[in-house]
Amino acid sequence: MKSKKSIILLALFGWINAVDAYCPSDSIYQSGMESLFPSIPSSPVISENEAARFLTQATFGPKLSEIRRLQVTGYEAWLDEQMAMPATLQETCMQAVLDDPDLPLYQNSRQEAWFLNSAEGADQLRQRMAFTLSQLFVVSDAASLGNEVMGLAKYYDYLAINAFGNFRDQMEDITKNTMMGFYLGMFKNAKANPLLGTQPDENYAREILQLFTIGLHQLNMDGTEILDIDNNPIPTYDQSDIENFARVFTGWNYAGCPQNNWDWCNPSQPEVDGYAPMEPFESYHDIGIKTLLNGQVLAANQSAQQDLTGALDNIFNHPNVPPFISKQLIQRFVTSNPSPAYVQRVAEVFVDNGSAVRGDMGAVLRAVLLDDEARNVSFLADNNYGKLKEPLIRYMGLIRAFEAVSPTGRYGNWNPEFSYLQRALGSPSVFNFYKPGFQQPGAIRDQSLVSPEFQITSETTVVSIANEMYEATLRGHHEFTHWNESMPLLQLQRELQIYNDKNALLDHLDLMLFSGHMSVNTRTVVGDLYDDLDDGSEINQLASLLYVLVLSPEYVVQK
Hints:
The chain is an all-alpha fold. The chain contains 26 helices and six strands.
């Protein structure tokens, strides 16, 4: 049980208040360990190791029943099925809270919905893609959006619903979203007023170019930088471009506002919709000539929508977009340092999905996951291949592998940012939790490699995450009486059935946590630990084994 001192500390950090958050889960929780040991298919299309590895890359972590199913369907059919599946939404949970006058609506409610959908949603590929897009098109509750619970839930739902849509559509929808408008200053961004000495806000103009679409430097199709004659990277834009795009992004306000009420229009007015795409106020839009990327000119006297369409088309068709986006998707799903050839193959799909469509994100994601560099196990021997699992992915992998549920059916780990330094839509800035080009000092930087997720890895987080994993294993199994009845508990009944068969148990844990690629050394270490654990109950011994395995480098690094 938690000590009194611990409970006081938790209360200070908001945990006790967070218990009041509510999000129904009965509609999506299914696990009763799903038939414990589903049978191995008689004619599998792929091996269980291949299936587990693919699900580690494409979802929040494999479950045994899903491994067996993927063995039957194969990759292509599984992708078809997942992309056709409707999105599991957060708004449903948030609305349930709003409809109950006795329940407050917190950002923790939204975080609980994220845990539920990510752990138990059947649309795993969609949810994983939404999490990826949420770290590309960044908005955050850590700053000006702290009170926007429903708005952020709807924003995340948009990313899930349109996860496999067209990138050009995503660009426009995100640009007009009020959450993004509030976060990066496009909401009520007015044209210059010489009398007041004001200029358009440049924040959104800068970030859509630098972070969301083209980056700072011109790229080849394989993601490498184009260099000038002095071997220096070539900028993609300059301050003049920023100022012109800032003038494009002027004149947008809430949907439904009367055109004579720019300043005081707000969602409390019945005709105003605070969550619908922003709408233009032409009198606040800059109608002058604008010069954009590569010298393209927008004519004078265009409407706000005409300018927006022209500007987004200008960005979307910039040659940097395919390699810039493709490389980041590869880094999120497969490996931090893909070969230039891998990036180019995916970028070419971004340019043309085979039907002359540019920006088909479903096709791009297929290319990422089905590429030889993603599927061929020969790459596992390459020390530069793979990626550090970001902390929330690491935790969710454990939760899913052992089908955790809580006594209340809720998901009571509301503040993961305290230990994991991550929270869905809660990054400290628009630069996300970490940058795609971050290089860990030492051997990684010395080899000119990048290691994005290492940016939130430190001596402190190594210890704090180890403590969280202790909670999730030794104090987080189904026979442990946790002080928080909403804390998800690992359901280890399946593993207990084979606990006395050492080889069968290690084979099973190898499949669920390492995709069947546990090294001989790690297996020896864990096998010796198994032999030495002669005190306590089998459940505690099993939890001890899991604790050691999830802290091992082979679990922490995805290959």
